[in-house]
Specification:
Layout lengths: L11 H42 L19 E2 L12 E10 L2 E8 L5 E7 L17
Parallel strand pairs: 1-4
Antiparallel strand pairs: 2-3, 3-4
Length: about 140
């Protein structure tokens, strides 16, 4: 299309025809964009549901499993199996809503268990004897 020169005659019919064609094409592109948007949303929803359904095995070979349900729990700083007091921290500590859980292992019978403490419990992760804070 040529640039209009000042004072040149304007073909009004041609301009109206071109405007009508551009309006029609614009409407087609809007409908196409709406269809693409809807299909994109549907594909994303399927993708998210597939990702939620996939279960990947733990990288560390099962080390990520939750031991909280399998180990015995006690509030005394003694082994619940042999009642021994020689304990070593296993370096697993969980805290939530005023309760802390520390995994310990008995050196006498090698049993693992959780010690539960509530509100303001302090733990030292060390090899010190029970009742003796680390140096």
């Amino acid at each position: 299309m040529e640039a209009a020169r000042p004072g040149a005659a304007v073909d009004h019919e041609g301009v109206l025809t071109q405007a009508t064609a551009l309006t029609r094409r614009s409407g087609q592109l809007c409908l196409q964009a709406t269809d693409l948007t809807e299909s994109t949303r549907a594909i994303r929803a399927i993708s998210f549901s597939l990702r939620r359904a996939l279960v990947a095995p733990p990288i560390r070979g099962g080390a990520d499993t939750d031991d909280a349900g399998r180990l015995p729990e006690t509030r005394q700083r003694r082994c619940p199996t042999c009642k021994g007091g020689t304990l070593r921290a296993a370096n697993h500590l969980f805290a939530s809503e005023g309760v802390t859980k520390e995994e310990l292992r008995c050196l006498a019978c090698s049993a693992a268990f959780w010690i539960l403490e509530t509100n303001g419990a302090t733990f030292w992760i060390s090899d010190a004897r029970p009742g003796c804070p680390p140096a």
